[in-house]
């Protein structure tokens, strides 16, 4: 295991859930963290928590990952502040589950924009620097729904399969570049993710579902494991789901 002292980690979607937990774990390993999302107030609270608890710097950059220029600014401001971008955690995502017959086309677009285009913008903004550095690590947060399709997850799954395809392609293309790639696929985790679902049929279906979800920390530990391996070890895929999730 290598610690992350003097490394810089950008985490998108750091204002809640899994991203917030990842920020804590990477800071605990010694990384300076750059916290990105739209809700600056939440990010500022997290930055305060992190600087109080760990001997690292935490910088907040308000970012909408659907805006290419925001993500470019996220990386350029990180480089100005810390000189390097060692880790880019493409975690921001939305899961607006719906049945196709209910035609939530605006939500389909939002998922494509955040979950696919947002991840592409993260790659676009950070990869050239990592290639130039001949080192770096991009972690893409996909999902168990990026390996299987569930009722109502059709479009969400399509976006998360896309994330997995991006990770697989990057892993092959970048194998000699010094840049590592990890695709992380969580199962059900207790976060704000399901709060934004609007399809009444899905909300009804969820009322009858019983599952003990994971905690965000359970996923953050997996990310910390992947990014603290020696530089010759490339952890390409991690799937973590609750014991009882089928
Ligand atoms: P949360 O809803 O708690 O967190 C989602 C994060 O994404 C928030 O920080 C939110 O920040 C950010 N986000 C959403 N839209 C944008 C945007 N346009 N620009 C920037 N940031 C944005 O959910 P999770 O922590 O659970 O989700 C994190 C990732 O994990 C997602 O990619 C999700 O698909 C994936 N995942 C989660 C699972 C679960 O069961 N929870 C299972 C499998 C995968 P803000 O609103 O402040 O912008």
From TrEMBL:
The keyword Oxidoreductase applies. The keyword Oxidoreductase applies. The lineage of its organism: Bacteria, Bacillati, Bacillota, Bacilli, Bacillales. One of its GO terms (molecular function) is oxidoreductase activity, acting on the CH-OH group of donors, NAD or NADP as acceptor. SUPFAM superfamilies: NAD(P)-binding Rossmann-fold domains (SSF51735). It comes from Halobacillus trueperi. Belongs to the short-chain dehydrogenases/reductases (SDR) family. Keywords: Oxidoreductase. This is SDR family oxidoreductase.
